[in-house]
Each structure stands twice: as C-alpha cells, then as structure tokens.
Amino acid sequence: MIQPTIIHLIRHGEVHNPERVHYGRLPNFRLSHNGERQAQAAADFMRGRPLAAIFSSPQQRTQQTAAFIAAHHPHLSVQIEERINEVHTPYDGTPVAQLMARGWDLYSGSDPDYEQPGDILRRTRAFINQVRRDWAGREVAAVTHGDVIAFMFMFAKGVEPAAGMKVNFPVLGLPEQYPATGSISTLTYHTTDPDEVPDYSYHRPY
C-alpha cells in the first residue's frame, strides 16, 4: 500500500494595501502586521508536519509567508515556483471598489494575453502533478494565492471554473466564502493516477 501524497496550499497573509487597489502581480506589496500574525499562525500549524519541500510563488507576500514556515523547517529552503503565481490580469492597480462592483471578475472581457480560470487550473495541476511524481508519499507546502487555491478546491468538488461564474463556496463544502489569507487547504492523493481527484480539507489557524 502506497503512502498518500499530501500537498498543503497555503494562502499568503493579509497584505499592506492602504490605497485599496488590486495588487495582483505588482511589486512591493508586503504583508501587513496582521498578515505577519496570520503567516505565523500558519507556520505554527505546519510546525509538526514532516515537510519534504516548501514552495512559494514569486510574489513578495508569498515569499514572506513561506519564510515563516521555513523557520520551523531549517533543513529546507524555499523554492520559487512560477506555476503557482498570482493571476495574470489587466486589472492590476485597479481600485478594489471597482472590482467589487463587477463581482471580483478578473477574467470576463480580458484579451488573450491574460489568463482565464482554466489557464490557472492547468498550470496549478501541472505543478501539483510534478510534486506528486517528485515527492510521492511525502508532504509538501506551497504558498500561493486565492484563485489558485479556489480553482483547485472547485476541481476537487467536480466544478470547472469559468469567467463570470458565481460560486457559492460554502455550498460546495468550504466553510468560508473564499479561502482566507493565512488559510491552509490540504490536498491528499492516494494513488499515482495524474487525474485523481484529491481529498480536500481546509483550516484557518487563527
């Protein structure tokens, strides 16, 4: 019997964003003081886990969050992974109020240079399948972003993400309206089938 492969998708902590814009892939958006506390709570939750690797998206906020986790696992260095990066969207820098008015839809009407939900799910699954091959039967942490996690949750629940789609996450089984900053979404794989739908569990450690 093979050991399960466990992948923890951890959303970065809250971001210092006094101008209230969608920061996306913009540089120099760090964790707020509350975000640092959230990252520390996530790190404390992960402290006793036998991690074989720690990954982070290239963004400053994810690397900061991953550093909190790595402090409890000094034998590991944080590996930067582009495939779990933030959404590539034309709305970086847009005031949050404008995005709220359009239901936080970052996808409808975007030209082909930008990502759609299916693009994000494909790159995320490619990363996850590589982790499953390289660390089969082990446990891995990856610090990433809200939609990356949300779309993997939807995949685990048999729902294909699409632009403009209204998703009631609690109805699908998530205990919150959206994966919270500092939350931990755990995917558990029991086979080597690349199309396996994982078991999913969610924890907000604060």
Overall description:
With 206 residues, this protein is α/β, with parallel strands linked by helices. It has one domain (5-203): 3-Layer(aba) Sandwich (Rossmann fold). Helices cover 32% and strands 16% of the residues. The chain has six helices and six strands. It has helices at residues 33-46, 60-71, 96-101, 117-134, 146-156, 169-172; strands spanning 5-11, 51-56, 78-80, 139-144, 184-189, 199-203. The chain has a six-stranded mixed beta sheet with strand order 3-2-4-1-5-6. β2 (51-56), α2 and β3 form a beta-alpha-beta unit. The chain is globular, with a radius of gyration of 16 Å. 34% of the residues are buried. The model has no long low-confidence stretch (mean pLDDT 97).
Mean pLDDT: 97
Helical stretch tally: 6
Quick one: how many beta strands?
Answer: 6
- Share of residues in strands: 15-25%
CATH architecture: 3-Layer(aba) Sandwich
**SSE string:** EHEHEHHEHHEE
The parts where pLDDT drops under 50 for at least 5 residues are: none
What is the CATH top level name? Alpha Beta
Domain count, please report it: 1
Q: Record the strand order, biggest sheet.
A: 3-2-4-1-5-6
- The rounded Rg comes to 16 Å
CATH superfamily: Phosphoglycerate mutase-like
Query: Main β-sheet, in a few words?
Result: 6 strands, mixed
Shape descriptor: globular
Provide the helix percentage.
25-40%
CA-to-CA gap between the ends? 35 Å
CATH topology: Rossmann fold
Structural class: alpha/beta
